[in-house]
């Protein structure tokens, strides 16, 4: 279905791939992994023929229909959600134009024509609207939303409509770049169940470890500019990679010992007439060896201890009679909540239920109309949102910004922590004013960890982080001694940290005094997702 051979690709003077090869067969479920910037999205662009490699070949079966979900996608024009999901607006007109152009060029036997024709036929299926509605429901849409203008909705909801259209077309090869972004818990579970039974092949980029463990059967890692293949899911890959590294390292050390022994013999006896020929033979033996390269150790999570925050009162925060509305839209009415010291609570619920709003009310960044927020004794509150750029001094470097908030931190410690959050070498000397949104988010995250509050509110903290960095964050928060209230769609992250679940829906809060699995058991959320798969 897809064959990549001897690929070489450089971007902005940096070589991402060199002699890289991989193959995807029909029915394969493959994850493409590697640190941010390794070239995962670049490889997708090459497969989609948006870019041309410097060297090597990328070949696709001419009968293969390829579907692609990018990380971002916005609606333009007046199309409704259902029109996006059925392709009536956007996709179908483009396909019709593409077919007309290829016919005019006499390319009706070309792979491009066959693929465009297959997509066009899929979206002209008499059952396309019924299929689209089923996909939209599974991804969290209500029937009342089907005829809404897509441009009225957030980018995350528009992405769900695009994903629904892809699933309706049922491509032979489905390329998904971070498909779990913007999904709430129930829709994530639904997509996970759907992809488990998907008949086509899947090539996936994801930072959600649990999602990959449930779906994939192969991993291709971008390492040392190569594509290294592993069988099994993501957890299997971690074990196999460590085993391969140990075997490779042992082979390298054994060869180096042999070379040293041969070299010492040659150095010792090359001037002794009776053994000179043996010495030369040893040197030639070294020359004939196929040298084993010293392996690069697998990147591992960085472990550091979060300093103990100041001890707060038994009640970290209390909300009484909170009323919160955006215009006519009432989010909360008469809401009460009490969070005790030391709790690690995850907020779960559908998108738009008010999870982020609740954190903002506690943090005091949005005004509520009625009620009172009471912080506990000696409270030191920290609020981490995905858009917290205003706390950075644009004239400071990344390193200076971190050291300013934690004067007791040694520079070498600061460098190590920044490195674990993907600020490496010269990047720590960049001014914070020129950082990207993701870089600013990561820097703020590090600042919280080195100078922690005793009440930490976090809204999707794993966004913009690769899996290894997420693990570094998880390890740090596991040792955090304060109170944690957070939102996340990363199931592995939730399982490791949450000791309590707060389900937010319909303006109400339902607490579950147990972890994520206890919540699933009590609510049947996983059963609801499975039921949605089989409903018509």
Characterize the structure shown.
There is one protein chain. The protein has 536 residues and is of the alpha/beta class. 40% of the residues lie in helices and 22% in strands. The chain has 18 helices and 18 strands. The strands form 4 sheets. Strands 5-6-7-3-8-9 form a 6-stranded mixed beta sheet, sandwiched between helices. A 6-stranded mixed beta sheet has the order 14-15-16-12-17-18, with helices on both faces. Strands 2-1-4 form a 3-stranded antiparallel beta sheet, with no helix packed on it. Helix 15 (467-478) links the parallel strand 15 (455-459) and strand 16. Helix 12 (398-405) runs parallel beside helix 14 (437-450). It is flat, with a radius of gyration of 27 Å. The protein starts with a strand and ends with a helix.
Give the amount of beta strand, in percent.
Answer: 15-25%
Mean pLDDT over the residues: 87
Please give the count of helices.
18
Question: How much helicity do the residues have?
Answer: 25-40%
Radius of gyration: 27 Å
Unreliable residue stretches: none
If strands are numbered along the chain, what order do they take across the biggest sheet? 5-6-7-3-8-9
Whole-Å distance between the termini?
31 Å
How does the major sheet shape up?
6 strands, mixed
The rough form would be described as flat
**How many strands in all?**
18
Structural class: alpha/beta
SSE blueprint and pairings:
Blueprint (H helix, E strand, L loop, with lengths): L1 E10 L2 E11 L4 E5 L6 H8 L7 E6 L5 E4 L11 H6 L4 H14 L6 H13 L4 H11 L16 H15 L3 E5 L7 H12 L4 E5 L3 H7 L2 E6 L2 E6 L2 H36 L6 H13 L26 E12 L2 E12 L3 E5 L6 H9 L6 E6 L5 E4 L13 H8 L5 H10 L16 H14 L4 E5 L7 H12 L4 E5 L3 H7 L2 E6 L2 E5 L3 H8 L1 H10 L2
Parallel strand pairs: 3-7, 3-8, 5-6, 6-7, 12-16, 12-17, 14-15, 15-16
Antiparallel strand pairs: 1-2, 1-4, 8-9, 10-11, 10-13, 17-18
Helix pairs in contact: 3-4, 5-6, 7-18, 9-10, 12-14
């Amino acid at each position: 279905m897809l064959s990549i051979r001897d690929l070489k690709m450089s971007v902005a003077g940096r070589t991402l791939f060199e002699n890289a090869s991989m193959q995807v067969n029909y029915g394969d479920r493959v994850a493409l992994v590697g640190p941010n910037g390794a070239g995962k999205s670049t490889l997708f662009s090459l497969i989609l023929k948006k870019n041309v490699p410097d060297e090597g070949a990328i070949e696709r079966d001419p009968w293969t229909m390829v579907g692609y979900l990018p990380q971002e996608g916005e609606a333009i024009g007046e199309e409704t959600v259902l029109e996006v999901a059925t392709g009536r607006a956007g996709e179908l007109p483009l396909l019709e134009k593409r077919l007309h152009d290829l016919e005019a060029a006499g390319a009706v036997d070309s792979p491009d024509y066959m693929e465009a024709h297959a997509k066009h036929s899929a979206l002209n299926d008499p059952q396309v609207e019924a299929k689209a509605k089923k996909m939209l429901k599974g991804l969290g849409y209500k029937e009342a939303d089907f005829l809404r203008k897509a441009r009225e909705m957030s980018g995350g909801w528009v992405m769900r409509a695009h994903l629904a259209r892809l699933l309706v077309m049922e491509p032979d090869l489905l390329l998904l770049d971070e498909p779990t972004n913007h999904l709430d818990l129930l829709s994530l579970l639904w997509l996970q169940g759907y992809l488990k039974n998907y008949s086509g092949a899947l090539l996936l980029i994801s930072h959600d470890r649990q999602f990959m463990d449930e779906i994939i059967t192969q991993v291709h890692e971008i390492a040392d500019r190569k594509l290294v293949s592993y069988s099994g899911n993501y957890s299997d890959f971690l074990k196999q990679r460590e085993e391969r590294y140990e075997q490779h390292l042992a082979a390298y050390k054994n060869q180096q010992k042999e070379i040293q022994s041969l070299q010492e013999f040659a150095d010792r006896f090359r001037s002794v007439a009776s053994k000179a020929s043996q010495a030369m033979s040893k040197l030639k033996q070294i020359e004939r060896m196929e040298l084993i390269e010293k392996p690069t150790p697998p990147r591992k999570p960085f472990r550091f201890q979060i300093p103990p925050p100041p001890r707060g009162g038994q009640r970290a925060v209390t909300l009484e009679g909170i009323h919160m509305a955006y215009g006519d839209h009432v989010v909360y009415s008469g809401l009460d909540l009490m969070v005790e010291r030391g709790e690690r609570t995850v907020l779960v619920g559908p998108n738009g239920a008010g999870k982020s709003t609740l954190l903002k009310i506690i943090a005091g960044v949005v005004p509520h109309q009625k009620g009172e927020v009471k912080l506990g004794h000696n409270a030191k509150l920290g609020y981490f949102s995905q858009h917290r750029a205003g706390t950075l001094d644009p004239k400071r470097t990344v390193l200076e910004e971190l050291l300013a908030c934690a004067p007791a931190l040694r520079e070498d410690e600061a460098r190590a922590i920044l490195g674990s959050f993907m600020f490496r070498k010269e990047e720590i000397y960049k001014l914070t004013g020129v950082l990207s949104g993701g870089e600013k988010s990561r820097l703020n995250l590090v600042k919280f960890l080195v100078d922690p509050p005793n009440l930490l509110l976090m809204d999707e903290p794993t966004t913009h982080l690769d899996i290894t960095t997420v693990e570094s964050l998880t390890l740090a928060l596991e040792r955090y001694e304060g109170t944690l209230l957070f939102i996340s769609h990363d199931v592995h992250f939730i399982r490791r940290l949450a000791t309590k679940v707060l389900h937010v829906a319909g303006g109400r809060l339902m607490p579950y005094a147990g972890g994520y699995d206890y919540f699933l058991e009590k609510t049947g959320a996983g059963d609801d997702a499975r039921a949605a798969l089989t409903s018509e």
